[in-house]
Every structure is written in structure tokens, then in C-alpha cells.
Amino acid sequence: MRRVCLLLLLAMHVLISHAQHLQKIISLSAQNRPLAELLTEAGKQAGCKISFPVQEVNEWKEVSIHAVSKPLGEVIRQMLDNTGLDYKTVAGTIVVFKKTSPLLQSGPVVHLQGIVRNENGLPLPYVTVQVNSSGIITNNTGAYTLRNVPAKAMVRISCVGYDPVSVTADELSGMKEVVLRAGRHNLGVVEVSTAYQRIRPEQSTGAIAAITTKEYESRISTDFLSGIQNKLPGVLINNDLKFENNALFQIRGLSTISANKQPLIVVDGYPTELSLDAINPNEIKSVTVLKDAAAATIYGVRASNGVIIIERKQAEIGRTRFALRTTMGITGKENYSTYRLGANNAKLNYLRDSYKDGADIPVDWDYYKNRYSIYQPGYEILLDKKAGLITQSQLEQRFADMGAYDNAADYSRLFLRNAFTQQYDMNISGGTERATYYVSANYTGNRAAKINNSNNRFLLSGRGTYRFNKRLSLELTTDYLETSGKVAPVPDFMNVYGYERFRDNNGNPAAIFQVTGMNPVFNDSIKKLGLYDNLYYPLIDVNEISDLNKSVNNKIIANFSYQIGHGFSLRFGGIYENSRNDLKHYASERSSEARQYVNQYAEQGPTGIIFNIPMGGYINQTGINTLSYTLRAQLDYNKVISNQHSFNFILGAENRKVTTESSSSATFGYNDQTLLQLPVNYGRIFTGYWVSPFAGGNPRLSYERLFNKGFTDDRFVSGYFNGVYAFRGKYSVSGSVRIDQSNLFGTDPKYRYKPLWSMGAAWNIDQEKFLHNVRWIDALKLRAAYGFNGNTSKASIPQIVAKYASNLRTSPASTSLDLASMENAALRWEQTQNLNAGLDFRFVGRIYGSLDYYLRQSKDLLASSQIDPTKGASSAVLNAASIRNDGVELNLHADWISRRGFNWNTGLAISRNINKVQALYVNNKQFSYNFLSNNYVVGYPVGAMFSYRYAGLDTTGLPLMYDVNGKIKRPGYGVLDEGFNDLVYNGNSIPAITAGLSNRVDIGNFYVYCMIDYYGGFKTRVPSPSVYATRPLEGSENYFRKPGDEKTTDVMGLYPYAIYNNYHTYVYNYADKYVVNGAYFVLRDVTVSYDFRKVKKIRQMGFSSFELKLQASNLLTVGLNKYNYSVATGSFARRKLVPTFTIGLFTNF
């Protein structure tokens, strides 16, 4: 009996001890970790041994679990769900074993594989796919894979900000895609990508704007920039306005004077040195703009102007998919009848009035025929009248006949054509869990509106991912880009007299005044001496002169990723880019350019004409090679602990190098058919000041223009860290630091090792209890960030630099060195201090967006500064200027109607930027005209516009102005120029306000999309009416003729040459009267589309999409000024835009 009792007590003790082990409370949270590691860790926490079969357990490499303060037995049960494994206790040990008959226990099993997307079709990363109490997380492409799942088990698919979906495993196995709809707390952003790391939107602290594939592809785009224009607040893209001869492309204003002013472009994770032509608009997955320090500091000294991240489409797991797209666009010819032009004979009437029909002409035929440039069409008629060769009635008739002809129609017929753009795009993609592939090809051909002008582009791209095992993977990208272009000279319509003919009476090409300005009689005299015809024949030159440009670009990106475990991963890789640009300028012997070079450097010898430049053609060839690479190694840590603490840290280093080599050479006496050339007497033409006795107005040559070599080598070594910590999904803090070293630096150590850094914080207010009952607020996040970005410039270098020059003040000419750059030991990065505060929101489930305020203080900008003149110069380029920008941005989206078969959404991107130059040395302040074209004036915005206070004309027909006290002043050399006080500030010439409004309405398989752009908050200057212009504008014919006309007209005309000076031209052309409000609207696009995929025949052919799009672009522009002038037209004379009509077919199968 004792033995029985003892055995019973022992058995009870064993059972109780086993039960105690299984009831021990542990916490375990992991994502995609090996099951063996999880079992071992659970045993350690519980203080017991867990035994398992190694082979069976090692099959499960990616197990996810989240258990907080749970009994050990429950935790083990969660880990073993759907694995075919079970556990039991044996002698104090927990033993895991393989179920003997899992099919009998669980029923049929299925394999699950697919992609999770949002409503816009974008893949969703970080989505939990959960079966009972275990599951996995989707990867960066939204893909997931689960094996051996019971067919009847419920699968829950969930993600922060989206409504979860629950289906049975059997149902899910037949679905290749799962679509999650935005939930109450969704901010409208899938994720934030800086290319270095991906951050969940609720954790982001920086100012970021993004557009997705659906938004980008709502319109037909043949180039990258047009697809994002006015869709991202703070990004100013405007080809209508020029600043320093470049189209506007800025993020949050201008933050430099001499350095690169455009944003940094990042494609597939790396900054690119290639042009934007290398980006295929059909491959855009998303575009993200990093605007403040918290978002962009990770890019260090290249981020001051903002960063644009471009992610291209990647392959998706599944069967092979094909996509074929083709578009064709046509732009009509210009309609010159709508131009703001004066009467065609206005110029001729002024010529007659100026010389009183020849009576006051200061020269005669004998003088005229021996002079190079005293010429204007109609001048010979006045000489004939003065010489008595014709009567007054004959003069009237000849002028009437000349003025009756308007060459606008002939210009359009001979030099213009309908512009045509065609694009063909094809891609193939697919793959398995082990490997995916995406191959695309794109051809774009542009036939320009001007004859003999065109350009073409061919792109070939391949992208693949290779998964060697559960830990190691490779992403490989290769790109090939080839471009070619031809430019032929076509005369500017506005620079041709309206009554000049392009063909003579026999149909042969005729000469016009433009380019040479040589009078025909003098030209006949030099031809008799044996020289070339020096006149300009546009119909000849357009066929005999060409600029050919061909480029070949290659890019390779390789990125290895190794999953270390416990939240750590290692990434290492790089990018290699190589480009070759060949430019060939050729002018045949028949061209005016080649002929004029020969004439310019010909001289009279003792026995005849000496040709220092031989007769024949001229060719100038330039080759530019650019090679760049970036190597990067990075350690990532991304983990969630106890469902409360989220860590997303990166630590890395980069090595970057960019080298450029260029060379150019010229050849004269060249024959493009035989490839032969003739010798040139360079020693003669580059000796001393050359004054041609035959063609003084012809273009001149310099040695640097004909022969040149260049080499640049930029090297960078960088280290960086960026981290985001989030607590309970409510609070986030971020920090970033980067140190860049470069061979561009000076030697002062206090500047060489100065880091660029940022910090930020975010508060998801909607997660707080006090907002839980506020139903109309779905999501609300407050964020703020502060930090520094940098910029690079080659306007100054650490060493003193001299360049070769020819001293033409000696005879013969001697060699000299010119000081090109002063030594700058304190050279450092330009630095921009950023402060940003923003609010992200989503209201009533339909309206979401962001509101930002920013302040950017750019200092240490490189600009000309005054120095001690005893150092060899009075000024040098130093880090001495500063500019301030501040502004407000609103990004708003509204889903007004979201129903099955009917959707209407609106997007509004609006921003306002105010900037001011705060510090800058300005030389030569004493003259007012120095400020008229100066874009940087202290105390005013970049691009400030200044004018004279116009006071009309005096009794002689010359302009008057008001001084600073409002008194009338006669400008002139004898009158004191009061410098800046003589001018009035009109406003900024760069738009301070930009806005883009888009609307899209979807009805079944049909949608219509419309985009309207607005630019405001700036001034523009319209041309003053001038009868002196080659093609006078309307109103110019009402010019001043006699005293008393000043009461009825402000248009300069006749005036006494004896008292005229350049100040009169300054005051007239830069009068405040001709400054108007520059604000304007443009109806940029209207696109309609219909997808025929549901048509039976289409479906039977295997098409999953068969979409036809029609688009009209640049339909209408409205200027908000009295002239209804919009700079979108490109010219004040031009009243209307010429629309472009495009048709496109987009298929997938």
C-alpha cells in the first residue's frame, strides 16, 4: 500500500512539475525567424528544456509570432500551428515531434502564394498574413508564401491603416492578388522610401510628397518631368520661364548662387549622373520627394536642393506577363495670323520717316557700296531717290510693293511642319520565389516642328532578383540608353523682316538680312575679288549646317542583401555608370558659316587674296566621356519588440567617384564625302588683333573654341547613420548624421570634418484616447524636424589656378597666364539649415493630405567677394553669401465618390515660397543699369525685378523718368545716375505660388482626367512697343513723329540722334509701365480612357488589359493681366498655345 501511495505521489509530482513548466509566463515576438531559434529561446525563458527533431524543425525557416505575457504551452502551440508538428512532456522535458497523420487531423492542406496591393494597385509591404496565431509578413514587393495551410483554416490579412481581410485558405489559394482598402487611420501613403531605407508612414518625421503609378499614369507621358509637374507641392517645374537661361526646376526655392541648382535625382536607390532622358516614364512605380533635413540629410552634401526618389517597376512572382504600349502625338504648325504684330509696313514707314524719303539720308551710293553694314531692306530705294534715279511716285510704288508681301505663310511652308512624337514600349516580367525578372525596351522618336530637326531615344533595361537561400539575395539592374539628335539652323520668325523673301523670282534661295547684316552691293564687290558670297541664305543653311549629337550610356546596379537574424540585415552593392557623348558640328562649303570664316580671315596680298582659312567645309567635333561609380555597405536593424518598441536603424559607408574627360578639335577645308581637309595658318589668324578688311561683322574664332581638352575628377568618401524609433505606434523620433569627405575641400580641418545632421519627431494624435470618439478624424499626425543639408560647387577650389591665354596687346602676340581662381584654403560645403513643421491628416474617410511650413537658411554660399587687392585680385569666389527661404505647402486628395463602378477623386498641390538674399557682395553699385539683370540683390528675392519710373516722352521723343522724390528727370550721360535709387522694385520674376489641380472620374472601364496648372505671385516684363524691332509688335506704328505727339503716345520713334544716349534705351526698355502681373493658368491636359478588357474577343485573345487613351495637351492658357499675356506661350507676340493631341494603346497579357 505504501508503494502504491508513493508511486501515486511521485506521478502527481511529475505531472504538477510538467504543468508548472507549461504555465510559466514568457514573452516572445519575432518576424520570419527559424523555428529552431524560437523554440530554444522559449525554453531559456521558461527555464526548461525543449527537445525537437532537427530535420523536421529546420524546414521552418520563417516563423512569426507575437506573444506578450503568455503561458509557455500557449506560445509553443502558436509556433507549431500549421507546421505538422506537435509537442508533449516526457520526464520533465518538452518534446516536439512530427504528427503521425496530419492529414487526418487537419484535413486537406494548400499552398498560399500571392501579392497584397492597395486600392491604387501598389504592392503593400509589411502586411501580416496570419493563419490562426502564426503567420508571415509580406516583403517589399507585397509578396507572401505560406505552405501546408489547412484548406479550411481562416487567413487574416492586415496592415496598419487598412481594413483587414479574412478568407479561408482554400479561397485564398485561388487568388493571386489581395486588395486592402484604406482604413480609418490611413494617411494615404503606402510607405516612405529614402532609397536607403523604408519607413512606415505613421513613423516618418520628415517632409515628403509622393505620387503612385495610378496617379502618374493617368496621363500619357513621353518624358519623366511632365508626369510630375505640379503634382508634388514645393516642386517647381516650369519650362515657360527661364532663370539664368535654364528652365525652372526647384524644390522649395533657390538655395545657391554658383552651385548646382537642380534637385538630386535618385533612381533605383542610387544618385545618377545620367540625364533625365534615361528614365522611361512607362516604368515609374512611384516618385517620392524628400524636402526637409529629416528626409534628405542622409544624402549629405547633395541634398540642399531636395531629393527626388524614383522607383521603377519590379517583377512580381507568378507567370510571365507581357505589356505593350504605343503612343503617337501630333502638334500642329504655328498660326502667325494670331500674333500681336503691327502692320507689315510699319518698319518701312519708319525707315521713310527717319530719312524723309531719302532727303536726310547721310550717305550716297558711292559711300554705301564701299561700306560693310550700312543696310536695311528698303535702304536702296532711298539712295535711288536721293540720287534722283527715281521719282516720288516710283518710291511710293516700290515701298508699297515691298510692304504688300508678308512672308509669314512662306516661312511656315518652307521651314515648319507638324511636330510628331511616337513611342513604343514593351516589357516582360515574371518569376518564382527563387528568381524574378523584368525586361523592358522603349523607343521614342521626336520629329520637331522645324524642318531637319529631330531626336530619338532607345532604352533597354533588365532587372532581376535572385534568392540564393533564405538569407542571401541579389538585386541586379542593367540599363542601356542610346540617344541621337539633329539640329539644323532655322531663322527665328521674329528676327526676319516681314517683307523679306526666302526665294527669288526664279525660285532660287534668297538672302536675308539676319546673321551678317552685310549690304548686297558690298557683297558683290568682294565676290569679284575672289571671296565667297558672304550673305545668309536660310534655305541653304538649313540643309548644309547640322549639329549631330549621339550618346551611349550604360548603367549596372548590384545589391546583395544578407539576413543576419534578430532584426539585423547587411546590404552591400553599388552602381557603375558610363556615358559617351559625341557632338559633331558640320557646315559644308555651301553654308554661310563656312563661307564667312574664310572671308573673315582673308587678307589682301601683293598678288591677290590670301586665304588663311582654306575654302571648303568646317567641322568641329567634341567627345565627352563620363565614368562614375558608387560603392555602398550598410547594416540595417528593423525590429518590433513587445509590440511597443519599433526600431528602424541604418549605419553605412559610401565611396563615390566621378570623372569626366572631354576633347574637341576643328578642321577647315573639309569635305564630308572624301573626309579630306586642308591646312590652316593658325599662326597668322591667332596673332594680334584681327580686323578683316572684307567681313568685319563675321564671327571670329578663338583657339579655345577650336581645340580644347578637359578633365575633372571628383571623389567622395562618406559615412552615415539614420534611425527611427517608434513607441506604441503613437510617438516617433528620428535622427540622422552624415560626414562627407571630398577632394574638393579646402585644408582647414574645422570645415573638413563638419557633419550634416538632422533630428525629428512625430506624434500620431489619432491614436490618443481623447480622439477615439471623434469619428470625423481618421488620422492625424503632427511632426517637426530640424537639421542641415549641403551642396557642392566648383566655383572655387583649394588651389590657386591659372590658365593659358594669349596676350594680344603685344606684337607679335605673346603667351600669358590669366588668374582663373584664387586659393581658398577655407573652402567648405554650402550649408542649408532646415526647419519643418507639418501635419498629416485624413478626415471623414475621404479627404487626406498634409500641410507643411518650412524655413530654410542657406549660408556659406559661394559667390564673388571682396578681398585684399594686394593678393593679386580685388575679388574672389568665397563662402560668403546667404539666402533665406520660407513657405507653406498643402497637399490635398479627396475621394468624393468611391463606389463600385463609379469613382471621383481630386488632387490639389499648392505651395508658396518667399525667399530673400541676405548677404552678398555686389560690385559696381554706382550705376543703375547694373541692377536691371542682376538676379541677386541683398534684401530682395532671388530674381527680383527692377525698373525705371517711366514718365513718358519729352518734346523730342526721348523718354523721361521720375527720380526717387517723384520729380521728372532726363536720363543721360550728363545727368547724375543715382544708382539703385533710380529704380523701383516691381516684384519677383520667379513664381512664388504654384498650384496643380487634377480631377479624375472613373465610370466602369472608362475614365476622364483633367489637369490645370497655376503659377502666380510674380511679375513679368512685356516688350515695350518698338518700331526699331525687326518685326514690330502691335501698337509700334503709333510712334513719336513730331513735337506734340508726346501727348498722345508713349512709343519711341523719331528723335534727334545728337542728344540720344544708351540711358534712353535703358529707361524705355526697362520702364515700370511694361511690368505686369505674371500669374497665369494653363489647361495642361485632358485625358480620356476606355479599357476594353471585358470585351469577349479581347478576353479570348488573352488580354488582361486593353486600354485606349486619347489626350489633348496645352489646350488653353489665361494670363491675369490686361493683355491676357501668359508666359506659357513662350513669347509676348504669341497669343495662343498650339495643342498637342496624343493617342495611346496600353495592353497587358
Polypeptide structure, described:
By secondary structure, this protein is mostly beta strands. Among the domains are: 15-105, Phage tail protein beta-alpha-beta fold, CATH 3.55.50; 107-179, Immunoglobulin-like (Sandwich); 345-404, no CATH class. It is 14% helix and 45% strand. The protein has a 22-stranded antiparallel β-barrel. A five-stranded mixed beta sheet has the order 15-20-21-18-19. β44 (959-962) and β45 (968-969) form a beta hairpin. It is elongated. The model is unreliable at 1-19 and 101-106 (pLDDT under 50). It is found in: Cell outer membrane. Its main location: membrane. Keywords: Cell outer membrane, Membrane, Transmembrane, Transmembrane beta strand, Transport. This is SusC/RagA family TonB-linked outer membrane protein. InterPro entries: Beta-barrel_TonB_sf, CarboxyPept-like_regulatory, Plug_dom, Plug_dom_sf, TonB-dep_OMP_SusC/RagA, TonB-dep_OMP_SusC/RagA_CS, TonB-dep_rcpt-like.
CATH architecture descriptor name of the domain at 15-105: 3-Layer(bab) Sandwich
User: What is the C-level CATH assignment of the domain at 15-105?
Assistant: Alpha Beta
- In what range is the share of β-strand residues? 35-45%
Question: What is the 3D shape?
Answer: elongated
Overall pLDDT level: 87
| Helix/strand structural class | mainly beta
What does the main sheet amount to?
Answer: 22 strands, antiparallel, barrel
How far the N terminus sits from the C terminus, by CA atoms, comes to 82 Å
Number of helices: 21
Helical proportion, percent range: 10-25%
For the CA atoms, what is the radius of gyration?
37 Å
Low-confidence stretches: 1-19, 101-106
Number of strand elements? 53
- CATH fold-level name of the domain at 15-105: Phage tail protein beta-alpha-beta fold
Protein name: SusC/RagA family TonB-linked outer membrane protein
Keywords: Cell outer membrane, Membrane, Transmembrane, Transmembrane beta strand, Transport
Organism: Chitinophaga solisilvae
Main location: membrane
